[in-house]
Design the sequence.
């Protein structure tokens, strides 16, 4: 089924279309472009106009451009517009207008991508659901996700992120959600704000785009919950709270056990239980928030609670793998928890709790006794108190259950120095230097958490550990 015709795209953007083309998708990257996609020539480090010829040669239906690029034939299928990004936004606006879908927008300092995937997983079992396949949550990603939305969509899930003040409100107005969910507020991107209340107010700007009679789903447990509720009140949104302190969707009990999470909750529908096929109290909170959002979207939260067990975290956000270190000895394995995509004190504390919930295996490695091992890279964008924040993690309650902590990066030196001698592993300046030592850092029987901000490059250690052996079949729960 056609996503965009030449006439529809021209009408939406006010551009001039050359040729009578039909597009079945929208792409901003020739590396992932599929035949029949409309290629949008955005300008970043390089100008997308440089790739128009390649996109057309790869089978693009047409390209959105400000002019015909050099080397592109005069009869090439193009949509010529004054501004390419504005045209992408216009396509997103038109797609949103043309659908009767119920739209859920999600933001938060931690967990928005996982929550988006939870929502996709459960809503897809109740209706035709559209969501981005990756973490497309910025000024390109949100309009791109909307522009890709089929007309027959019944539920849409839009992730909205930010790095600086003023970014969320325009994206929310573009999405015009019926329901807006804030997962949590934490010290992420703090360097761009005066304090955490500033982060809360920016996240609460997601309520700016709510439709009439829109619903704000808010974490009741965060210190800034009252800030979020005040912002929702100003927008006259109906408020639904979730969390241990909630009067609406109350988290009553969470049990972490060997890669699983069992959750009990008191809800407007009565008592609910659900299971997640991965460990994490933070995932339990996200799951509860998604159930509250599902009810606000008009979906069945009881069915959604049963379907949450089908969700698994995205790569690098808490996935669990079994790595076989010696193919000749099937029992010589370790458990690898890959959480190397992002980090701040809140998410690190949650990950350490997950690590502490595991039981290592004894008598299978060279060290005999299995260990809980954390490999940690720098947490970035925390502002002027970043060194103190790193050092404070040594006091985290879950640290008592860990056997060894390896650290990489100048900021993580503060945590390393604050650790007791018995738990200190290796500290290095760069993650690359830890990766080269992977075989000495871990052993069979260990449970190994790797976590840090993406730019710390701690994911190199994940790759190095995987290469020590052959992972069992994919992520496991």
Sequence:
């Amino acid at each position: 089924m056609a996503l965009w015709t030449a006439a529809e795209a021209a009408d939406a953007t006010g551009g001039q279309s050359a040729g009578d083309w039909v597009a079945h998708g929208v792409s901003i990257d020739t590396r992932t472009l599929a035949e029949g996609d409309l290629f949008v020539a955005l300008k970043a480090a390089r100008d997308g106009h440089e790739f128009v010829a390649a996109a057309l040669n790869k089978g693009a239906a047409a390209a959105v451009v400000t002019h015909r690029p050099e080397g592109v034939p005069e009869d090439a299928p193009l949509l010529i517009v004054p501004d390419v990004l504005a045209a992408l936004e216009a396509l997103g606006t038109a797609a949103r207008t043309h659908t009767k879908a119920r739209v859920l927008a999600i933001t938060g300092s931690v967990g928005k991508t996982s929550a988006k995937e939870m929502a996709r997983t459960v809503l897809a079992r109740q209706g035709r659901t559209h969501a981005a396949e990756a973490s497309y949550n910025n000024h390109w990603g949100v309009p791109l996700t909307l522009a890709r939305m089929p007309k027959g969509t019944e539920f849409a899930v839009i992730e909205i992120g930010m790095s600086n003040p003023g970014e969320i409100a325009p994206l929310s107005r573009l999405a015009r959600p019926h329901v807006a969910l804030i997962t949590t507020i934490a010290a992420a991107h703090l360097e761009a704000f005066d304090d955490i209340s500033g982060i809360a107010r920016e996240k609460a700007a997601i309520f700016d785009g709510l439709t009439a009679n829109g619903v704000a789903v808010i974490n009741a447990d965060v210190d800034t919950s009252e800030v979020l509720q005040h912002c929702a009140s100003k927008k006259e949104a109906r408020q639904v709270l979730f969390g241990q302190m909630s009067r609406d969707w109350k988290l009553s009990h969470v049990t972490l056990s060997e890669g699983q999470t069992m959750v009990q909750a008191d809800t407007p529908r009565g008592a609910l239980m659900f299971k997640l096929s991965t460990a994490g109290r933070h995932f339990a909170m996200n799951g509860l928030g998604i159930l509250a959002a599902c009810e606000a979207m008009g979906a069945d939260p009881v069915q959604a609670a049963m379907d949450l067990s089908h969700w698994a975290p995205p790569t690098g956000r808490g996935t669990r793998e079994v790595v076989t270190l010696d193919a000749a000895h099937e029992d010589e394995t370790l458990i690898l928890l890959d959480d190397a995509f992002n980090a701040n004190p809140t998410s690190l504390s949650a990950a350490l709790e997950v690590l502490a919930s595991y039981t290592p295996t004894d008598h299978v490695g060279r060290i005999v006794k299995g260990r809980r091992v954390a490999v940690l890279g720098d947490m970035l964008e925390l502002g002027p108190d970043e060194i103190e924040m790193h050092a404070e993690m040594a006091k985290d309650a879950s640290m008592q259950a860990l056997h060894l902590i390896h650290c990489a990066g100048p900021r993580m030196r503060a945590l390393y120095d604050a650790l007791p001698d018995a738990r200190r592993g290796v500290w290095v300046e760069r993650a690359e230097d830890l990766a080269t030592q992977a075989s000495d850092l871990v052993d069979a029987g260990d449970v190994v958490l790797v976590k840090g901000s993406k730019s710390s490059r701690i994911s190199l250690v994940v790759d190095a550990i995987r290469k020590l052996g052959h992972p069992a079949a994919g992520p496991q729960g």
Q: What stands out?
A: The CA atoms of residues 27 and 33 lie 6 Å apart. Confidence is low (pLDDT under 50) at residues 471-477. The chain has three domains: 4-83, 99-310, 319-471.
